[in-house]
Write a structure and sequence with these properties.
The chain has a 5-stranded parallel beta sheet, with helices on both faces. The protein is globular, with a radius of gyration of 21 Å. The protein is α+β, with helices and mostly antiparallel strands and 411 residues long. Helix 2 runs parallel beside helix 4 and helix 7 runs antiparallel to helix 8. It has 4 domains: 91 residues, Rossmann fold; 64 residues, ATP-grasp fold, A domain (Dna Ligase, domain 1), CATH 3.30.1490.20; 124 residues, 2-Layer Sandwich (D-amino Acid Aminotransferase, Chain A, domain 1), CATH 3.30.470.20; 73 residues, Phosphoribosylglycinamide synthetase, C-terminal domain (Glycinamide Ribonucleotide Synthetase, Chain A, domain 4, Alpha-Beta Complex). The protein binds adenosine monophosphate and glycine (GLY).
Length: 411
């Protein structure tokens, strides 16, 4: 079996690394992949529109495609490839609305009784601003569409909310769409990712992402500054409730005519009223994938094959803790410099996931906001975090930034 992984980040690096261990795999291919993947994958180059991807699949006899990120899904790569008999472990364009349209996701949650933040949608600045004027901060403002992970702002003041609403609804910085304003959910966050095919649903171990740029939940939201797995602060009862919500969505999607296949990501907040959904995504999380996948003993290709055939599978999970610390370019998530040289010592290379790097004349350079994730592993969370930070120190890197509390904080 030949498999193509779509995407160029740390999540896809983790996928490639795991897939390459498979016994049923011939070759794993990547399209415009990052340098970290090259040890385990065969590189393809070219455009990334669904039609171009289809041509690559036919040329290289690829029978299974795993899209890493939502942009491929939103363009309908699954719809096109499956219509040509190629298996895709990722949802159709319609089903991926669970991520790409916040309003769609809220409707499903309402219809299937899934606890989430109360919200209202707006299309004009004036209505949205007036709504905020009658409420206390913080204001959770969400763009209803794809905004490269920057579509959510937690505005701590009315002035900040005014500016964000102006950018979204008057200047339409991400395009012409609705805006949701949500109730703020106070609680520790965790991610539950399930492998889903219609009503077959297999949970992967929980992970905890750290979204804020700075220690202690301060600063702007990022794609994720680090993650760990397993997550001990979620009790069995709260775990069961969360899994129930994931089941309800999967079943709801089938009932509504949008059956879901792929990784279904639930972002939860553990509020004083129990777990509530912050968001659903139609893919693996990044950096969650980098701490979840290495814990899974099963052959991933075999697992996906079984799920696609509606068979239930037992996942065997390593009991050790994994911590991943993300190293970012100075300035991220705002503007940042690229092309800084990046030295990754040989002895830690197998614990480094490439997120935004490139290789020029045999040396690595930074090529994105989130540059690499450095992983640690241990019998306890502390031990795993300590190992990740020791590896970072061994890099003696003076340019990249990172949070010092990954694996040590629940925020
Ligand atoms: P989203 O893109 O919906 O995941 O939002 C990104 C991040 O913003 C989440 O991971 C949370 O940290 C935060 N967030 C989103 N919605 C809420 C909410 N209603 N209450 C509190 N925090 C939120
Ligand atoms: N780490 C959050 C996400 O992948 O959406």
């Amino acid at each position: 079996m030949n498999i193509l992984v779509l995407g160029h980040g740390g999540r896809e690096h983790a996928l490639v690394k795991h897939l390459s261990r498979s016994n049923v795999l011939n070759q794993v291919f990547v399209l415009n992949g990052n340098p970290g993947m090259m040890k385990d994958a065969y590189p393809l180059f070219g455009d990334e529109e669904p039609e171009d991807i289809l041509k690559q699949c036919l040329l290289h006899h690829i029978t299974l495609v795993i899209p890493g990120g939502e942009s491929y899904l939103a363009k309908g790569v699954t719809n096109l490839l499956t219509s040509h008999g190629i298996h895709v472990f990722g949802p159709t364009k319609e089903a991926s609305q669970i991520e790409t349209s916040k309003a769609f996701a809220k409707k499903i949650m309402e219809a299937y009784d899934i606890p989430t933040a109360r919200y209202q949608t707006f299309t004009t600045f004036q209505d949205a601003y007036t709504y905020c004027q009658h409420r206390l901060p913080p204001y959770v403002i969400k763009y209803d569409g794809l905004a490269a992970g920057k579509g959510v702002t937690i505005a701590k003041t009315l002035e900040e909310a005014e500016k964000v609403l102006h950018d979204l609804l008057d200047d339409k910085v991400y395009g012409d769409s609705k805006v949701l304003i949500e109730e703020y959910l106070e609680g520790h966050e965790y991610s539950m990712i399930c492998m889903v095919h219609h009503t077959t649903i297999i949970p992967l171990p929980l992970a905890k992402d750290h979204k804020s740029r700075f220690e202690g939940n301060l600063g702007p939201n990022t794609g994720g500054m680090g993650a760990y797995s397993p997550v001990d602060f979620v009790s069995q009862q709260h775990y069961n409730l969360s899994l129930d919500m994931m089941r309800k969505v999967a079943i709801g999607m089938v009932n509504e005519g949008y059956p879901f296949t792929g990784f279904l990501y639930g972002g939860f907040s553990l509020t004083s009223e129990g777990p509530k959904v912050i968001e659903f995504n139609a893919r693996l999380g990044d950096p969650e994938a980098e701490v979840i996948l290495p814990r899974i003993h099963n052959d991933l290709v075999d697992l996906i094959d079984k799920i696609l055939h509606g068979k239930s599978v037992d996942i065997t999970v390593d009991s050790s803790y994994h911590v991943g610390v993300v190293m970012v370019s100075d300035g991220y998530p705002g503007p940042y410099k690229k092309n800084e040289s990046l030295d990754i010592p040989e002895e830690i290379q197998s614990y480094v996931y490439h997120m935004g790097t490139k290789k020029e004349n045999g040396t690595y350079k930074t090529h994105g906001g989130r540059v690499i994730l450095v992983q640690g592993q241990g019998k306890t969370l502390d031990e795993a975090a300590q190992q990740a930070y020791l590896r970072i120190e061994s890099m003696k890197n003076k340019t990249l930034k990172y949070r010092c509390d990954i694996g040590k904080s629940t925020t």
